[in-house]
UniProtKB/TrEMBL annotation:
Sample GO molecular function, one term: peptide transmembrane transporter activity
Keywords: Signal
Domain Solute-binding protein family: 84-461
Keyword Ubl conjugation: no
Entry-linked PROSITE patterns: PROKAR_LIPOPROTEIN (PS51257)
GO biological process per UniProt: peptide transport
GO CC, any one term: periplasmic space
Residues in the signal sequence: 1-20
Name of this chain's protein: ABC transporter substrate-binding protein
Length: 540
């Protein structure tokens, strides 16, 4: 099946005009649906976060889903990915380099502290400071004064004007800066968070639509219970009574709970049910394009995967993967073979980037390339792909490994880890000694977000430690363009180099495949595959 492309609003900056993001109301309810119970709690699936819930140190899906529910940023993204003001009253610039941000008055954290300009500036300074080793540090790289080499506790590019106004000076004009500000790295923190950030991360205090249901709301490896934040009066105001996010050990277990009426909303259908779930749930099932890219990463530190030999082997492996067959047989057509490193739902996507033919199944060419690499240094050992067993990845990993065995004549196998958190910890601390499942669920709807955080030198999600000065230059030049089309040309040029180096092997684009129970209504999945929980109604 083909993914239908959905439009994503891009923010264009005039050379001498002010940019202001406008407000927007949340999605409306289905008038034909039964009235919802405003006290009813919505149950949904999730995964145990990798780390304590500190916004600047959370860069994975499990923790991100929770943070997006309990925090409100300057902007939020609607179902199609357009940015609208949330805490921000206005975000203005005349040159795409200097921004004035004004906050709505009388905003509060759930502990009663006011949300002020310092709430944002202090949180951003903490996330940007090299001494604090935050996973999302990279997102502050653009701000004047940022440094990877030395600790900068207070960035000169951030200045508090008054309680509800602060300014941001970037190192250069950047076309998509306002669009980034809905990502969790840019969330505010209350002053009390800095008294004990470790404790705060276990029981975070936010300012969003939901809040934790008490200090013991997070039951590790089991679930987290959220209730409605009565003080939040923004555009994502919840119409239900709360959200229970259950951490399942497998997608099959979550699906069984949905079938049995013990789960309200599921956003990840297991492979075993992809061919049947739409028939079973009818108009309570969805298959929708989402800004999700799947791949596996081969770190250059692994034997045989650096230099010319490494590039030849990466290209051979890519050409030995039959993406069409895997997406058709294993995923029942609910995935689309990749043509680039981004997503079809993002403005600027292209299937015509030079070098992308390395993604075509070509076993004969794969054998030739592998033989050329063997002439440099003979292959030895087993090629392994690590993955988290709780995420429904075994079938495709086994299919890729079998293809490599058959087409390249090497030993290949999957290397499962029980949980996502365990796999991510090994990847993050660089103790993993194999290739590993990777991919990206977009933080904000722009091409750069699929490229810079993953392949920029030193980027927070560059788990393979890839570095290419030409790519870095093109990414920087693309950000400096105030015209989105011109910026995207630079990002596509960077992808030409990525196709040569293949720091990650693109596999396919994901759709979101979800379903919901008979007792909930107004279920809508966003551009990034996450349901808009705040607008779901429930009758019991």
């Amino acid at each position: 099946m083909k993914i239908k492309r959905i439009g994503v609003a891009a923010i264009a900056l005039a050379a001498a005009g002010a940019l202001t993001l406008s407000g927007c109301t949340s999605g409306g309810a289905d008038p034909s649906a039964p009235a919802g119970d405003a006290t009813a709690v919505i149950t949904t699936n999730g995964s145990e976060p990798q780390n304590p819930l500190i916004p600047t140190n959370t860069n994975e899906v499990g923790g991100g889903k929770i943070l997006d529910a309990i925090f409100a940023g300057l902007v939020y993204y609607d179902a199609k990915g357009a940015a609208h003001n949330d805490v921000a009253e206005s975000i203005e610039t005349d040159d795409a380099q200097n921004y004035t941000i004004k906050l709505k008055a009388d905003q509060k954290f759930t502990n009663g502290e006011p949300v002020t300009a310092n709430s944002f500036v202090d949180a951003w300074n903490y996330g940007a400071d090299t001494a604090n080793e935050q996973l999302s540090q990279y997102f502050f790289e653009s701000i004047d004064g940022f440094s990877y080499e030395e600790s900068v506790p207070e960035l000169p590019g951030l200045e508090v004007v008054d309680d509800t106004t602060f300014t941001v000076k970037l190192k250069q004009p950047e076309s998509d800066f306002p669009l980034r500000l809905g990502y969790s790295a840019f969330y505010p923190l209350p002053e009390s968070a800095f008294e004990d950030l470790a404790a705060f991360g276990e029981s975070p205090v936010g300012n969003g639509a939901y809040m934790l249901d008490g200090e013991d709301a997070w039951k590790h490896n089991e679930k987290i219970d959220l209730v409605v934040n009565p003080d939040y009066d923004g555009p994502r105001k919840a119409v239900n009574g709360g959200l229970d996010i259950i951490f399942y050990a497998s997608q099959d277990a979550a699906y069984a709970d949905l079938q049995g009426g013990n789960l309200d909303v599921l956003d990840a259908i297991p492979d075993s049910a992809l061919a049947t779930f739409e028939d079973e749930f009818g108009d309570r099932a969805i298959t929708q394009a989402a800004a999700i890219f799947q791949s596996f990463t081969i770190p250059a530190r692994l034997p045989h995967f650096s230099g010319e030999e490494g590039n030849l082997r990466r290209q051979a492996i890519s050409m030995a993967i039959n993406r069409d067959e895997i997406t058709d047989v294993i995923f029942a057509g609910t995935r689309t073979p990749a043509h680039d490193f981004t997503s079809p739902v993002i403005d600027g996507y292209s299937e015509e980037i030079p070098g992308s033919e390395v993604l075509d199944y070509n076993p004969e060419e794969a054998k030739k390339l592998w033989a050329q690499a063997d002439a440099i240094a003979p292959w030895d050992g087993t090629f392994k792909i690590a993955y988290n067993a709780d995420g429904g990845h075994q079938a495709w990993v086994d299919a890729v490994a079998n293809g490599l065995k058959n087409d390249l004549g090497i030993d290949a196998a999957g290397d499962p880890y029980p949980t996502f958190a365990e796999a991510r910890t090994k990847i993050t601390d660089r103790t993993i000694q194999t290739a590993f499942r990777s991919g990206w669920q977009a933080d904000y709807p722009a091409l750069f977000n699929f490229l810079g955080p993953l392949y920029g030198t030193g980027a927070g999600s560059n788990d393979g430690d890839y570095s290419n000065p030409e790519v870095d230059t093109l990414l920087k030049e693309g950000l400096a363009e105030t015209d989105i089309a011109a910026a995207n040309e630079k990002f596509q040029a960077a992808q030409e180099i990525l196709f040569q180096d293949l720091p990650a092997v693109p596999l396919w684009y994901s759709t979101v495949n979800g379903a919901w129970s008979e007792v909930v209504n107004d279920v809508e999945f966003g551009w990034n595959s996450v349901p808009l929980y705040y607008q779901i109604t429930k009758s019991e």
